[in-house]
Task: structure prediction
Amino acid sequence: MGAWSMEILEQLDQQFAFVAEIGKLKGVLRQTTLGALGRAENSAEHSWHLALAAIALSEHAPAGTDINRVIAMVLIHDLVEIDAGDLFLYANPEEHARQEQAERAAADRIFAILPSEQGAALRALWDEFNERRSAEARFARAIDRLQPMLENLAAGGGTWQRHGITADQVLEKVALIEDGSPALGKYAHELITNAVTAGLLAPARDAGRAGESARPSRSGEED
Amino acid sequence: MGAWSMEILEQLDQQFAFVAEIGKLKGVLRQTTLGALGRAENSAEHSWHLALAAIALSEHAPAGTDINRVIAMVLIHDLVEIDAGDLFLYANPEEHARQEQAERAAADRIFAILPSEQGAALRALWDEFNERRSAEARFARAIDRLQPMLENLAAGGGTWQRHGITADQVLEKVALIEDGSPALGKYAHELITNAVTAGLLAPARDAGRAGESARPSRSGEED
Result:
């Protein structure tokens, strides 16, 4: 290769700046405890785990789902936490609203580090994930909802026990899994029933409500 | 959804077992130090970083490279370290040979947790990456070679300084980057020149050899 064209060199500089910047996600800690390691999970390794879960569970996505777009979505979905931090899934609505605003501002900054066309494409993918606008986004959200559940199970209760979460609260969140994948929703439902039986998760406060998990709204209520 | 078919339930059990098993990669520590965090990088967050670097740098892959296959490769490439551990890039050839054997045994075990067809497909992808058999594998290896370099730069020298690595040794490794992407190889070359100038990396022991980085063999010598 001869001399750089100025355009390619500028693009490389921007792309390398982006790669360096996103490394900060390794320092964003989540509420989830990794049972075997006795430490909090960070958002980078969480995102990796989601991407591989999407690959492993891809056949349970609705027909026609483009799994490569799902993988890209889960890889980038938490980048905004570099500025906004991680919010606990069971935080109150006011906290969720504040978080949403902070995450949009973060997306404005972080994706703009890339060359503009490329940054805009990733930003659009992030918006799509956030607004659950497609089958891909809904499947990605399902995976994002499922993985912490598995970590809590592996940790013998994890954040559920630490925060006094009960089965009815968890089942409400499962609605989002069903929305992305009926098969995964059903499997998650059984995992929760088993967790209650095994004493890892407290039963519903009002046992009569536990079964009727509301269909989730298009946006807003989730993490 | 009604009752499970036994086949789907068995597949889900295997897929969830795989997702749980691979979480162990978060506990495999690499030689790379994350400068800003003052701790070792683990192989799960490293793999996430590679996947996003592949997305950010995709336009520098040779024409026709399927970037989605590259992403899948880097996501799975280190799973074998769950059993085999991480080997330092600059380890001796005997250690590399031992490691290679341990990694193949690990691949036999870990991919077999999945339903057989799915496990075989991921295993083939892992073999392809390892043997650098395609443009996708060579680009993935280039990214895998590039990212630790960036971490060392960000950490003000990192493993280079800790292990007394010199510029000629790093330049030998850059041959693998050039092999996957001439543009990225050229950019890496400049980063190394700048690192020597900035005093982050010791100059070549025999300055005359520093420029001639050997073309890499098809397999064997790399991490």
Summary: The longest strand of chain B covers residues 29-34. The longest helix of chain B spans residues 135-154. Chain B has a mean pLDDT of 90.
